[in-house]
Amino acid sequence: MKILTWNCNGALRNKLDDIIALNADINVIQECENPAKIKQSAYTEWAENYLWIGDSKNKGIGIFAKKNINLKQLEWSDNYKDHKVKHFLACRINDDFDIIAVWNHSNNSPTFAYIGQFWKYLQINKSNLKKCIILGDFNSNAIWDKWDRWWNHSDVVGELKHIGIESLYHKFFNEIQGNERLPTFFLHRKLEKPYHIDYVFGSAEFTTTLKYLEIGKIDSWLTKSDHLPITCEFEI
């Protein structure tokens, strides 16, 4: 099974050929439009099997699968002490494993923006995380850890590892958090501003069955988005 994550930087309907060429079984796309509200036949036909959430019809997070794959949205909580965190979309795949699609948001929080949003989501739903893949745009890296904060990127990675969930990129390339050779994002699409902020985390079922992991080539993708896609293939 091939699974992809990509922040498309909007207007996914105009970038379908690029996604289709990668032939993933499941595509997790951030900043995409709601297929139910966009009147473009090519997009709605491609998105015949999907789940989507977002603040507006033009920008949200979607899980798009081939038609032979069963998607079931999971009603996991996204309320932490009466504050709604975003954006997180959990679903069951073929009644076998779970995918948690992530697009970490600032959410107008002065303290718990981006990785803080995921830290809160993790506290609410940690007991649900069994056989799963957590992937998407985390807007985070260990280089931005702060000494007096307990929801740092490294703290979140440590919490996930404690329950048997690890970053597939770091396992595959034998790299450490904060020292990634391959970026996934270029601020303002400038080559001199590279960062690694997109991730695929997996439980043991996926760290042991990973066949390959690939980040899209800069020359091919930077004209389409400020993010590069991550594609993983598993022996499932």
Automatic annotation (TrEMBL):
Pfam families to which the protein is assigned, alphabetical: Exo_endo_phos
Protein name per the record: Exonuclease III
Keyword set, alphabetical order: Exonuclease, Hydrolase, Nuclease
InterPro entries reported for this sequence: Endo/exonu/phosph_ase_sf, Endo/exonuclease/phosphatase
Residue ranges constituting the Endonuclease/exonuclease/phosphatase domain according to the UniProt record: 4-227
GO molecular function: exonuclease activity
